[in-house]
Amino acid sequence: MENTNFSRRSFLQTVGIGAAAMGLPRVSQARETTEEAPGAEKRAVDRMVSRTEETMEEHDPDYMPANPDASKGWQPVSDRKIRVGIVGYGACHFGALFGFQDHPNVEVVAVSDLFPDRCRDLAKSCRCSKTYPSLEKLVTDDSIEAVFVATDAPSHARHCMDVLKHGKHVASAVPAVFGSIEDAGKLIEAVKKSGLKYMLFETSCFHEDLHAMRQAYHAGILGKLVYSEGEYYHYAEQPTDSYKQWRVGLPPQWYPTHSNAYHLCVSGESFTEVSCLGLPSLLQDLQPGANRYKNRFGTEIALLRTSLGGMSRMAVSWDTPGMEGEMGRVRGQKGSFAKNYHGLADDLPDFRRPPLPPNVPPGDHGGSHGYLMNEFVTAILQDRKPLVDIAAALNLTVAGVVAHQSALKDGELMKIPQYKI
Question: pTM for this structure?
Answer without folding.
Answer: 0.87
